[in-house]
Amino acid sequence: MIETRGYDAAWLGFSKNDKTFAKVVGSGFSRKVSNLSEHVIDGDYSPCIRNSLAQKKNLVVVDRSRECGDCFFKNAHTSKEAVIIRIKHADRLFGLLAILFAPDVTADEEEKGLLREVAGDLGFAFYNMELEEDRKQAEEKLKEYSENLENMVQERTKELRRALYDTEESRDKIDGILKSVGDGLIVTDTYTRIILMNRAAEDLLGVRFSEVIDRPIDVAIKDETLRLRFKTSLEEREPGYQFDFELPGENSKHPKIIRARTSEIKDKAGNQTGIITLICDVTLEREVDRMKTEFLSTASHQLRTPLTSILGFSEILMTRDNIKKEQQKEFISYINKQSVNLAKIINDLLDISRIESGIGYTLHKAPCNINEIIRETVKHFQASHPKRQFDIILPKDPLELMVDKDKIGQVLENILSNAVKYS
Question: Is this model's pTM higher than 0.70 or not?
């Protein structure tokens, strides 16, 4: 500007925040511009600078008679005129441009317009430089963020892979546990829809999990009775609810007996999120219970029969004096025999483990003359109950049966004992 326009000197101050300056550069001064720079940067502004900052005008003509009285730079060019132009763009003040020229150089409106245009160009240039700097900084930050993001993505990918591996491993463990569980397992949500079922449950209910997943359990189960029982039990939502139901077995006369037991699934807050239903085949268990009941009933009845005989014949021996020795011996022999039978019954009663394993009674079959067994049994009852009349009708020829002699004897004794007591 000094070379092309003939100005004597000029300086440019770069503003930091519209009030303070970061740097001052200049040209054409007789004194070092560093002196001015030190004062301006330290905030020791000349009157013309304070006036330019305060007036907010684009171009301020310095009135040397009023503004240069105590100026620290007054003697730099005492015979020069000065104009200060605000360099700004988009309401952003980038600094001040001061022009010093001789009095014979008229600062007319055209010159002022030129200076304003120069200030505008400078402001626009500084604005673009600032944008470029911001863009570079933004690019650096974006690049840094991109690198960090890439590292974060890689780390997150590793975490997701680890989580996926852990999830698959956990799923395989759960799947292995479900397959190894012998009882059927059904998991339903709060809307009684099936969300999990193992193979044992599939086999018991005759359905496949892939066909009934996410379907209500009362729709997925084919058997109507079972469907209603399941629906009712799940609607009750009582923890530990238990019920039994029957399913067709291999033998139509003997259905399978299935026991179902429900348990709640709760989240961390204690809210119910579903129901677990365990189902198991208790047919053998129920059969064993039935056999136990029948065995105990039969055994208790069989205990009474030999005890009655023992008590009856021992009472005869104690109360009658006219009994012959042969009869005494016979009665004692019968008491002994009934004692042996009683011991056998007690042994059967105590041998519960055979019933637990489903074996039940063991029969020792052999050819036996049923006529002799009947006559011998009736004979002892006739002796112990002389007031009763026993009529025996048997074939003349021996009649052999393949039976357990002791067990048939117990049957006959039970029949005759009941006849003596109740007929």
Answer: no
